[in-house]
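Next comes this protein:
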Amino acid sequence: MLRNTTPFLVSSLYYPSIMELERYEGEGDTVIRKKGVKFGLGILIILLLIDIVASFYFYDLAIKRDVKEFLTGNKDLEVSAQAMDEFLKGDWRSWYREQPFERWEIESSDGLKLQGYFLEAKEQTDKTVLFAHGYLGDGQDMGMYAQHYHEELGYNVLTVDLRGHEKSEGDYIGFGWHDRLDMVQWIDTLLDKKGQDTEIVMHGISMGAATVLMTSGEELPDNIKAIVADSPYTSVYELFEYQMDRMYHLPDVPVLPTTSLVTKWKAGYSLTEASALDQVKKAEAPILYIHGNGDTFVPTAMSKELYENTKSEAELVTYDGANHGESFVSHREDYEAKLEEFLKKYMD
């Protein structure tokens, strides 16, 4: 009997049954799946951390008030020698310094002290231009345009330092969104100081152009007769999306949506809500769009899209060969003629 059962006993001791093999294999698959899930989660966490770090980096890079070295040497901002000479050495600089500008100050709705500079026209007039400068600029940068409005057109001039710039308070750059509410306050201040008969044209360049367009969608007094937007962008998100691809060859997702969340947390606005495009769909004042066809920093297509979606009366002028913000210099005679034609149509 023992001799007959020995093979069975031996086989039972050393060879698992089919059911046991299946159980072992199942447990092995479970272990592998668990390890795969842990590995996948680890990768996701690493990617998330990279995304968060990158988002804070881009917030500091573009939005936090600070020195912006990333613009140095940017080929998209290269302008003609003629334009560079005018920007740096034009007689408008000495003209601006010699003018008796009054310094005005307002407090924004969120408690920031903002600075403005008012220049009375040589002869009494109800016409005033309210300027908005570009990214990293200040009120003085609009002196080249101010000289034309003041000397040739006979306008009063009010140019301001946008929040986060020059002498105005603020630890972030609003890219026009919070600035639109500041502009409404500047309009109210202008009417309080200079009378309810004041006729106002808002004129902005680059970020300042987006600012006046964002302002256009607010509830404005009838005193706003016209708006001039030179080289504007459609929205902050679309501008950043374009620049991320152009400068860093990166897609917008996932970094830009997370950067938008960081901006909402730290600066109080998201990149998507800061939209000139949405605002011009509600605009009542007529708008003149100006853009250089050679602009590679803010593509000309953005002005075309804005123009096509503007609720109010609008005109679009483009200049061949002009890079970002240089149309006034490179095509000055035609620029001034188009501007004066537009203003005569809408300024009483």
